[in-house]
Amino acid sequence: DAGVIQSPRHEVTEMGQEVTLRCKPISGHNSLFWYRQTMMRGLELLIYFNNNVPIDDSGMPEDRFSAKMPNASFSTLKIQPSEPRDSAVYFCASRLTGDNEQFFGPGTRLTVL
Amino acid sequence: GIQVEQSPPDLILQEGANSTLRCNFSDSVNNLQWFHQNPWGQLINLFYIPSGTKQNGRLSATTVATERYSLLYISSSQSTDSGVYFCAVVYSGNTPLVFGKGTRLSVIA
Predict the structure, then answer these.
(1) Which chain B residues touch A103 with a CB distance below 8 Å?
(2) Mutation test of the interface with chain B: which of A101, A108, A109, A110, choosing the one with the most B Cβ atoms within 10 A?
C-alpha cells in the first residue's frame, strides 16, 4: 500500500489567495483526519470524517477553512482567503476504526507570504 | 477531562545510551500508539499497543492498561533516534486520537 498520500508537499502562496490541500487515504480506511502543526500550538485536529461524513469540525479555526470528502478515496482542505498565520504543516491521516492503527501522510508545508 | 501526559518533556542522550519514555492516560483506552516525529517532520508509526509488550529492533514498548500507562524503551540510542516521540490514545468508540505533548529527544555524539 502506498500509505496516505498528500499533495502538494510544499505550497507557497500570497496572502489572499485560495489554497487547496489534497489527501488520499489508505484504501479501505473509514476515517480521515486533518491536522495542523505549528511551533506555537503543536499538533491540532481540525476536522475528521467517518465514512465520508464530517463528524467534528470544531477544530477548524474559522470560516476561511473548509473541508470536503466527496468519496472514500479523496479529501480536500481549502483555505480562502489565506493569511500569513495559516502558515503551518498540514497533515492528513486515516485509519479503519477507533481501535485500529492510524497512519499519517507526509504533510503539506504551507507558507503564506 | 481527557488527559495524556508524557514525561520527560525533553531528554538529551549520549549515543549508545538507553532511555525510557513514559505515557500516562486518564481512562481505559481501546487504542494506544507511539509515533516518532523525525527532524524532517515526518510522523512515523512506532507501535500500536493498547496492551502488552512489543519489540521492534532497538525499540520496545509496554502498555499496562489496568494501571493506565505505557512505556517506550530505546536501547543503544543513535543520532537517527532524535526527534519528538508522541503517545496518543483513543478513549472510546471511533473518536480521534488524543495526543500527549511529546518528549523531545536529542541524541548527541
Answers:
(1) 45
(2) A101
